[in-house]
Batch of 4 targets.
Target 1
Amino acid sequence: MTNNTFFALGLSAARLKIIKKLNFITPTEIQAEVIPHILNGKDIMASSPTGSGKTAAYSLPLVDLLAKIDTARALIIAPTRELAQQIQTVIKSVMQDTFMQSALIVGGKNMQGQLRKLKQRPQFVIATPGRLNDHIKRRTFGVEDFSFVVWDEMDKMLELGFREQIEDIFNRLPAKKQSMMFSATYPKRVLKLAEKYLNNPVKFFTEETNKPNKNITQKIIKIEGNEKLKKLTELLQEQSKTGRQILVFVKTQRATNEISVYLKRRGFLAGAMHGGLQQKLRDKTLLDFRNKELQILIATDLAARGLDIPAIHCVVNYELPQNPEEYIHRIGRSGRYKNKGISYTLLARSDKADWKKIKEFLNN
């Protein structure tokens, strides 16, 4: 780590005061490495494990930079509503005691309410590519005057099919800007875009890039026949005794609903989370999970990013992800902020091919 105190990173006295208020003790590795470069106007291409403080790594210096220039604005683009909401929460916390405002531009939220917020010209706009392009096409919002742009979890945006929207946004951004790209994984397709979108960036990759967090104990449970649901039930019975939060990942919306209903009928405090739910229901389910009114959340990969709940101790891969890199993001929901976590992967014979791809990805 380059610096072991926030004071040494060049942040303003006002930001250091907020850091103390938020009980940040020492900067994480990525924060120590990139914050000085962001303050010095450099483009950034960075990666570190989930839960390592990437959002604060760009939020803290950006608030200081925007505070110095009245007309400066920052655009942060994220793949999912949940991640965008989490980013806004962090930004609001680090821009306390300022007159800055932020706007959340995501699908599932009232368009008119977003328009009212955008007319106030907030300093921070956090958006998903789909809804951002809706506003651009309707000419209700433009991105031509943003001095700072952050691409958060670009690999997930590509996986969700946002390539065309991303290109359109990029082509409308001003030529002179400071750009940053952060992610926990950097597949080759993302590296190619980074070369295009970033100007001579400072690169920072931890040794754990494309590797699971070392605080997470990984366990494999081999399943014979069609006993996966039975084994999941046994596992949840055991883990629920700890009183800690449990996140179970499946592939499809249908499986999410069916397993959630199955568990609730057996007395578990379980809920479902997937992209087919209305945003209000998604928000309520996450709130109930955060408040521990639900102990178990059954989710698709929608919850693999942006779900920052330190109380999650256990992650279960009931079904494997479509893309190997999502395995890292899934289990990274536990073991956050140096806490210990555990992940279980239930492997049937039909999972062998997908598991082989994941192991190859992890070993590269």
Target 2
Amino acid sequence: MAGEVVQIRDSFDPRYLIGLGKVNELSEMVNSLNSNTVIFDDELTSSQQDKLNKKIGVKVIDRTALILDIFAQHAHSYEGKLQVELAQMNYLLPRLKGRGIEMSRLGGGIGTRGPGEKKLEVDRRKIQKKISLLKKEIEQLKVHRNVQRQKRKGKRIPLVSLIGYTNSGKSTLLNFLCDSNVEVNNKLFVTLDPTIRRREVDGGRVLLFSDTVGFIKKLPHQLIAAFRSTLEEVKQSDILLHIIDSYHPNMEEQIEAVNKVLVDIEANENIILMVFNKIDLLPRLEINRLKERYPDGVFISALKGNGIDVLIKRLIKVIDRNTVEVILSIPYKKTNILSYLYELGKIKEKTYLENSIEVRVLIPKHALQRVECFKIDKVVKA
């Protein structure tokens, strides 16, 4: 970044977003620094963008265009590219004027990238048609995703989603937890597509961990709309791990931004466990201060592995609140149910009898219906 201009106002200027005097100051700075792009940290209207382009003399884009550009660079899967393109089309549509606009007229670089670096001459009608097609394709993929989700629900393996501000360390944690190799980079929005991995804990019990797109302050509404099917994964999770960059100077603002997005996608009622990452970078005094302020939080270093055992124990404790220990009598011809029980819960004791196996097992309460046919002899504890 070559330079920065800040203005505090009671209200936005309808012509330029910022005041005319600040526009002139910005224009002089651009000339002195020989800059070629100006990025506004708020969304500009089409009229404001046109006026600023003419007044400053270089390309002017807003926060939303920049974020869409970053998303476009990191969209690798077919669904991810569709979602980013839909967000870009929804952003472009109200900015069209007259009979059309040639996207290539905007030039290359920040704020102009799209999946495949497309440069098309489009008009409003073509964009509306494209938006309709993209929505249909995404809806079809959503149906497929729902089928996969229902299969997982049928097995009732707990799903734990890693959420948090972008670059808070979610992918690093997923890699450590599940011995996976998800791409990790010190950049914004590296992860766009949900990545699900499994891990056995506590003697064979299975948990599914899902890495999700990072959140950000003032997340563009176009992205929330386009990624709604992806974010649905968050809503359907049994537990949300809110991964927090405890070393970031704006940690509190990032926490608030994530909580706001959770409200926007109606996932704020889920069970949420706050996980403070990167404690290896903090002095002991600061860690103690955080523990006092957030007594229910978990404090880890995903990079070094500090506190991971505590995190797993907390997860199991939360899951076990909704479990029950029962004794089942399973005929030998039905022993295939044992694999289901091993995957779903924790078998604590097995006794081989003449006609059946007596199993003492800890399972989720919602799974009781599945094993009713095995004659639950006794509920040990609720």
Target 3
Amino acid sequence: MILFATNNFTFIMKQATNPLYLEHTISICPKCIKRVPAKIVQDGESIYLIKYCKDHGEQKELFEEDARYYFKKKLYDKPGTDCKRQTEFNQGCPFDCGLCPDHEQHTCIGLIEVTEQCNLRCPSCYASSGEGKHLSLEKIEEMMDFYIDSEYEQAEILQISGGEPTIHPQILDILKLAKNKDFKYVMLNTNGLRLSEDLEFADAIAHIFQGTGFEIYLQFDGLEQNTYQTLRGSDLRLVKQKAIDNLISRDIPITLVSTILKGVNDHEVGAIVDFGLKTKGIRGLNMQPLAFFGRLDDHIDTTDRITLSGILKRIEEQTNGKILFDDFVPLPCNVDRVAITYLTNRRGKWMPLARGKDLQSLVPRIKNTFAFSLDDAMEEDGSCCGTTCKCFGPKKLADVLGGIAKSASDKKRSEYLNKDLFRISVTSFIDVYNFDMKSMKKECVHIITEDLRKIPFSSYNMFHRPGIS
């Protein structure tokens, strides 16, 4: 056996022939799409989900590549935050979405798909986007208002998505509308094609938001041709670079969003991190193990997938230890599926804020939220933290950030947040193979539907998206 220390928590990594039972859960049989009993076990250095379907037998799925994260996340879990509900408890999770009274977390990110159309045909698209309709501006406003009301007028992040939202004929009107609503933050989720070519469009976005409360959530899967050919169907490297250049020249904040598929671009994880840290104007990076729903090939081996902890391991290995596995902490609003770290720029060198600090003891003071400003972190009660994935926060963030947070002017603090603080998060969505009831009930990224419901992103793409049988 191997002894591991994770901050203030020590556990034994079992090396044995027989799996070690850890806990019971409910999963989904991918063949009949029925709820089935399952157990979570440790087998060697990894965590597995073993399901039992009376019609299709036993099924074993990789749950976490590295058992350290499974044990560490339990130290950061906490009760969820309530919000208004739209449906009744009837068939049971995940078939009553939503949100039904059984869901245990409010909406950290509300996602509105303003169009079904797309200018790409990505083989990996979870939405199988292509042809379809645009939502009307009136319907989109109704959905925005519903989201705000459902959160007791405290809606945090609105993500405008699709399809490809930039091809909606009224996208600028949609952005103006979002700007004038009571959201803490607005994101535009885009593949970057239009932003790489349409300079007037980029100018218009910059004018609407003027650098505040907004960022581009830019699809960016790597730096190699094969990565884009496999995941997106064409070589988009030049498109991505042009889009980034056009956004940076207009001071429009960027978060890179990378879909990671084992055997395709998991060897690029370190290079993506390095690119983000070296490119002025990029504020953060979100990596997502590919979830197996939507437009996918049947030959993909789900038992050999990459997981959240697998990405953390690759970051440590491929950055040569500059960013460590234990520099990441589970996000308390959804510890099973989101890990995050922040780096600060000190004399031109990026250093993880969490390294060597006891953040576990601060969990009771952390809000269940993704919405962050430096001023929030400076409040007397020190209740908040973070940056776009923001429930990572100390008694006072000043205690971690040091002098710049304690004494700088508002302008200097804003410049620090925008230029000298970098966020890396890993988000693992749920599919029918790795489905775990506990993490499903805590998922806090929700689709806002036309009929005014909120459905967890993973559940929507597995069971509730129009056209899914």
Target 4
Amino acid sequence: MPDLAEPVLANEILDTSPTFVVGIDASGRTMYMNGTMLGALGYTRDEVIGQDYATMFVPVRDHDMLRRIFGDLVSSRGTTYNENRVLTRSGRELLVEWHGRSVYDDDGAFKYFYGVGIDITGQKRVREALYRSQQRLALHFHQAPLGMIEWDIDFRVVDWNPAAESIFGWSREQATGHHGQDLMVPPEIRPYVADIWEQIKQAKGPVRARNQNITKDGRLITCEWTNTSLVDEDGEIVGVASLVSDVTERVKEEAAMREREREQAATIEQLSAPVLDLWDGVLAMPVVGGIDAARAARMTESLLEAIVRSSARFTILDLTGASTMDASIASHLGDMIRATGLIGSECLVSGLGPGMARTLVELDVPLAVRTFGTLRAALRHAIRAARL
């Protein structure tokens, strides 16, 4: 009596297999489909047995491809491999990786073929997403305006994008495999760069630096670097990625701006203590804005130097442009008036308005000097007195 347990056991194994299993006869009709495939496609076994496989499960655009596959299976005595789409009841397409084989009777006549398939729809999406990500990364690497360099752990070039070629003059082929110190670092700063390299290998985050580099044609340029160590899944550093930009022109502009600011500061300082030669033996110093201790010292120094240089008999302090008057400013003015008197020049004060005069009275600050409402009046007095 034949043992019926073996085919029953085989069917149970096929039904619970995590792969798709399908048997198709010579006319293209479904003979068998395991539970895994039925569940994925959304059918019962009764609905699929005897149905034309291509019509029920294959998109129309793939019918010609499926016929070629079936033809290969009939003529082949080995296993075939292919990927094709399979339709679910809802119309969704699954991408399945099939391994097919033909079965023959004892006389060598073709009986049917069967396929074992793996649903790779999710894997395909992941592969495609990974491919697109790699493509975008490659485009970014090659089209980025910043130089992008990958180094190995020994500071040798692994990869080098077109922007790096433009900055340093070396092509990717010329740069690959060369040590960074030899390729682009001037001898005088190699110790500094070596120290930066050690910092990069020990740091957990980016290490930034600005230093001079040298190009293929020998030009010295200034570059800004952002360097990040590349770490594998075991936490071991396997290389370094660098972003680099040529900031030579920006550094020159910054230096030029600092020089302009220095010159402007010097000019402003001179203007903050101007001494005007109004007449033979008559000098004037306009006081504009507020006066602090530092400015008062500069004004006094400039005024005394001018008095000595010109042997001025009269010095006019014009307060027309002074912004405020308080005890501190009055004290500074008093110091200047006393200093001019000590070197033989009589000090006159002009432009002292009613508000300032009232403030001086309230503060009880005597200037002990002749005052005039306008610079013209003070100058007229000085000229007359100088003629006597």
